[in-house]
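REQUEST ID: PR-0412
SUBMITTED BY: lab tech R.K.
PRIORITY: routine
TASK: structure prediction, single protein chain
INPUT:
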Amino acid sequence: MEHLITHTSFEGLPLYSQREIQEDMLFFDIETTGLSAARDPVYCIGCGYKDGGSLTTELFFAESAAEEPQIIRAFQERLSGFPTVITFNGSTFDIPFLKKRAALLGGDLSLDPFFRRTHIDLYREARFLNRILRLPSCRQRNIEQFLGYLRRDPFTGGQLTEQYLQYLSHPDPHIREALLLHNEEDITGMFQTFGLLSYKELLGGSFTVDTCVRTPDRDGREMLSIRLFPEYDLPANLSLTGEDFSVFVKKKEVLMSYPVRHGELKKFFDDPENYYYLPQEDYAVHKSIGAYVDPAHRRKATRKNCYSKKVCDYISVPAKTAGSPLRQSYGDHGLYLELGHAGDKDLKQFLISSFEALMSGSSVDTKSRT
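STATUS: complete
OUTPUT:
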């Protein structure tokens, strides 16, 4: 069994990776001679973890098929010290494959207890974020290229299977170097890919609002321009268009733009049992006031007519459900923010809801990416 250890610095990693990769996390990836755990052995297992001020990569490589139990046992020992594992598509492939191979090989190689721990699958995270990233696919190489990480290794895992089988019959140091390089770059590529989670942090509200300015656009429409500072530097720029609003994501700032509208909005109350609806006025009043209104000019309020009305300036985005206090109608699935009266908390929640609208696919267009 070949055991190769390398140490690298954090230089060149996305800021999120530098800050959030913890010493209790183990990144790992496997290389196999096929896709069937029942018949195809594992020939290489790569691990990566933070070790003080640097990143350590360990490769366990089987020089022959007979060494498969050794590399799985070496991985078992390494895995035992980490409560969190990070993979790329490990939920579907690496973990079930390894568990079955260990079970088939028998002895003390059962990995079931070792995988009862926190698991972050970067492939699943990438698929979620691809609703706005719009990458051609969520393959690890595509994500690495998006993040600016370029490999030296030109091969896919499938292409290297034939190389490994050739290596078993005719050991060649050049083939061995290519096999090891591929697995090592799978691990270092995951260190990079981990930085993709900075977008998830942004979507969840890890930002501060810097400025809100009302300015005219080229067509003379009044726009509200908002600048945010994300908690983490973002790896790559995105230009996104939602339904009647736009977002430009840069490394250190996010610019959001909404058309300012003027009109009537209705504020719906959650407790219609405490209100009367006044048909002539077309709004609801609390019973403490409605008690003084002629019974002929009032009736019990319902959820659909339990509202007050106001004319104001506002911005809006689509929402998943009708739950906003301010709406144009009862069934309106929009989120509205009244300008001039919204607090910082309301504004931040509105911006988070704007990101949710982008993630839901409501007329989203990724216009450019640099």
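NOTES: The chain is about 30% helix and 30% strand.
REVIEWED BY: pending
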